[in-house]
């Protein structure tokens, strides 16, 4: 980020980004596991687009736990590259999961939508 940005410009951009993030509809869980389930809570299956010459379906599984003594404020993620996809999970603190989600959103917006950096907008304006 450019060193000559004013605090007002930075605040304005942060408000704009936060409003975009809050206005995007969040995906509904794929499954809600009840209290009798081994892992009670919400699960989301995110299927990647299959590459042109690919044959393997790639699925990410994101899980939360409803049991507070077991949940410990963690979000569990299983990627297609896990040793056992859908069974092997990496725990992330909720705050780290949010940072990861926001970084992915920012990167996707930059690449897919051509959202410029704040300093690039200032030079163009």
Task: Please supply descriptive tags for the structure shown above.
alpha+beta, 20% strand, extended, five-stranded antiparallel sheet, 4 helices
Note down, in words, how this protein is organized:
- The protein has about 120 residues and is an alpha+beta fold.
- Helices cover about 40% and strands about 20% of the residues.
- It has helices at about 5-25, 70, 95-115, 120-125; strands spanning about 30-35, 40-45, 60-65, 75-80, 90-95.
- Strands 1-2-3-4-5 form a five-stranded antiparallel β-sheet.
- Strand 1 (about 30-35) and strand 2 (about 40-45) form a beta hairpin.
- The longest helix is centred in the last third of the chain and has 20 residues, at about 95-115.
- The chain is extended, with a radius of gyration of 19 Å.
- The two termini are about 15 Å apart.
